[in-house]
Amino acid sequence: MRSSESEVVPLREEHTENGPGSEAAAASPARKGRFRLPSFRSLMDFGIVLGGTAFATATGFILKVFIGRHLGPDALGVFALCYAVFTVMSIVADVGIRFSMVNLGARCVQDRAERVGEFVAAGLLVKLAAGATVLLLGWLLAPLVASTVFHKPELSPFLQITSVGIFLWSLWDGLEGALHIRQRFSGASALRILMDAGRLAAFFALFFYRDGLLLTMDRFMWLYFLCPGLSVAVGALVVWAVLRPAAADLAAHTRELVVFSRGIFFYRSCTMLLLFMDSLMLTRYGALEQVGQFEAAKGLAYALLLVSESLGMVLLPKVNQLQSLPELKDMLRRMMAYLAILSVAAVVWLSFAGHFLVFFGPKFTLPQVVSTFQILVVATLFTIPSTIMGTVLMSLHKPGVLGRIAALQVVLGLLVYPFSCTYAGIMGAAITGVSLQFVGALSMAVVLRSEVSGKESHPAMERDAEH
């Protein structure tokens, strides 16, 4: 690897005009270290993914409003719990394979394109097996989990339905990651919109048919978690046409993915558990009505997270195509511009969005619910820097460090949440969540600074260049 910024190895030709390689190569020494805006192509990719994620977020918000208003806080609490279990267990079913597939596949796009299809085939096979395992165990263990973990046996059938959704989502997640390897963000966003539009249509079909005669939580949950099936079918055809997944040397590629995924799996599992630990702890130590109220405030506040989620999807394949530390530093400076966007959006959102709680019904406009919303908006200010720093550290082969940081947050949450949820209710859960997010962002900043500050090369990037 060359050590100076003027000697950065360019990316392949189709990326040299607007891609991440040219951004670093075009940087003059005089501009080095200054705040820089992202390239037009990066902004376009981010906008495409943001559009699909925004549609999904809006769909989720509309569904929560109708559930809370017409079925009550208890029903919204059931939905919130199942969604929390769904998200956490989807990460378990992923076993870190999506990030491994995107990381390793993106590194092969330029010079060894045939290996991309091989990594995709191996990744989808692992996700199929892991998703089926979680489906089987989830269906069988749901009664035990409902009665012993959450102390609410009535949740058993809903947890069984959730296990079916985890299986379908595991497949969809792999297909979406495969499209992101080739930066087909528009196709992936279109399929995500198709999935969430189906969920919205399913709910309103139940809602309007004979004045909601068929609208029950179990019927809605079945339709909600089965809707990804259509996107899975269409996505499989698109991935086959674009990437031509190949079974050549499948065992070797599977081993490579699994070895790479171990640290990522631990990090992602802890991160998702941390994100939904508040709802899970409120379910255990509080009432379903509290969970519903908290979910309304959290869903409204975390609408800003669509910026962080979209940024992570765009940044992951791009950062793994960079070939030197100066390029990485340059992209890091550019991506931090999104932090300014989030800060402005958070202030604007905080100024008026609390009034939207009235749409959920009178029980959602209590002072503690409004205060919970305001506290949770603050938590979003730590998500974008954490997303950027986490993605960069993974590209530097530091998933183990990220896993230890996330594990520290989880341990602190397990110690604090029982007291905060018991004695301070939903506001206590919100304050605890903000504190844990701050601890994670600060820890990542310290680690990343030690990895890149004052250096012109990094051993992990040199090994990738040699391979």
List keywords for this structure.
18 helices; 467 residues; globular; mainly alpha
> What structural category characterises the helix and strand content?
mainly alpha
Strand-and-helix sequence, N→C? Answer: HHHHHHHHHHHHHHHHHH
Give the terminus-to-terminus CA distance.
Answer: 11 Å
Strand content is: under 5%
**Count of individual helical segments:** 18
User: Largest beta sheet, briefly?
Assistant: none
Low-confidence segments, given as residue ranges, are 1-35
State the shape. globular
How many separate domains make up the residues?
1
Compact summary:
With 467 residues, the protein is an all-alpha fold. It has helices spanning 20-25, 40-70, 73-94, 97-108, 114-149, 156-181, 185-208, 217-226, 228-243, 250-285, 288-301, 305-319, 325-335, 337-352, 367-380, 383-395, 399-452, 459-466. The protein is globular.
Structural write-up:
The protein is mainly α and 467 residues long. It has one domain. The protein has 18 helices and no strands. The longest helix is centred in the last third of the chain and has 54 residues, at 399-452. Residues 1-35 have low confidence and may be disordered.
